[in-house]
Predict the structure.
Amino acid sequence: MDQITVSEREHPGLRLVLRHGVLADGSAADVAIDQHRGRICAIGTLAPMPGDTVQDCTGMVIVPSGVEVHAHLDKALSNSGSAMPVDLPAAVADWLGRAPSFDEQDYVRRATSAVESMVSHGTTTMRTHVDIATAVGLTAVRALVAVRDSMRARKLADIDIVGLVAPPFDGSPSDPHLRLLDQAVELGIDVVGGSPDLDPDPLTATRAAVSAAAAAGLPIDLHTDQSIDPSLFFLPEYVKLIERSDIQRAAASHCISLASQPLDVQRRTAENIARIGMSVFTMPLTSPFFFGWDTPSGAPRGITAIHSLLAAGVQVAAGADNVRDAFFPLGRFDQIEVAAAIAMLAHLSPEQAWAMCSAAPRAALGLPRVEVAVGCPAELLAIAGANLSDAVAGGSEHRLVIHQGRVVSRTTTRRQLLC
C-alpha cells in the first residue's frame, strides 16, 4: 500500500506525517504531506523520516476537509436574545432594524470569530453572503473584505464573498441597490447575489441580478424560492436566464418550493439545471427551522428536492446558513453537524451527506478535487471515529485540521468517568 513520490526526496524535512489514523472506510493508514507543495505525497504504513513532523492520529479518521457553501458572516453571532421571528420577512425586518447599529469593527470581530470556529471544526474554505442594502450601506462589505484578506494572509481560510443585494432590485439606472452593488464590486466582492424570492417582483429581480453578474464578469448565487408554497417557483426562469447568459458559474440557494412540485416537474427542472451546469445549495439547519411553524399536520421538511437533483447529476451541496442570529438561534459552524442533519432529513448515508459538505461544494465552487490520495491537495480533517460514518454520527470535537499542507487547528478532548 506504500506510495512514495519524488517530492519526498526533493524536499527532505518538509513532510507532515499523520500516523496511526484510518481512512473513510476504516482501513488503517498513515498519510504523509509534502508541506512545500501542500499535497499528499504518500499513503500507507510509513516509517517517519529524519526531519518529519509527526501528528498522532490514533482513533481518528482522515477525510477531506469541509467546505461551507452558504454562510452569512455579517449576521453571525448577532443574536440579541429577543423572541425569534416566526417567518422569513419578519426575520429580515428584525435584522435590518438592528444592522445599522453595528460598526465595521463589530462586523470584523464577529466574522473573525465565526471563521476561526469554522476552521477549528475542519472547514477552511467558505462562501459567505453579505447584505448590500440602503439600510446598511457598505459597512459590512468592507468588513468582510478585510476579514477575507486577513484570513488569506494568515493562511487560515479561503473565503468567497457574495454581494447579497436586498429587495427591491430592478437593475434600472436609478436603482440605489444597483449603485451599491457596483461599489461593492469595486471593493472586491467575488460573486453577485440577491434574494429575488423576497422581492415584490421576483422575475424582474432575477433578471437584474443575472444582468449585473454578466456585466461584472462574476459568478452568481441567488437565494431562490425560499418557500414551501408551490406557487413561488421561479427556478425554471432563473435556469433559462443563465442558459442565455455568458455567466460561467451559477448557483441557486435554497430552492425549497422545488420539493413541493409534482415529481415530473422536479425531474424536468433538475435535468435542465444539470444540463447548464448550475449548482444547488440546500440548508438543512435553518430552513427546517423556519418553515412549517403554521403547519401542525404533515409539516414540510423545508429542504429542496435532493434526490431528484442528485439523480439528474446536479452538484448539490449543503451549508449551515445562519448561525446564532436573527434568523437562527443555533448552529456550531460545523459541517459535520450539517452532514448529520442532511443525512437525517434527506435519507442519505453519512458518506453521501459528507460528500455534500466537502466534495460537492468544491466542485460547485470550481475548486480542485480533494481526496485522501497521493497528489491531491492536503486539505484534510482528522476527527475521532472508527470510520467516516462513525465520525459523522459522533460529531466529536477531537479534531486536527490541515490547510495548504499545514496544521492550522488542533482540538483535543479527554473523557473522565468518575464513578
Summary: The mean pLDDT is 93. The chain is about 35% helix and 20% strand. The two ends are 43 Å apart (CA to CA).
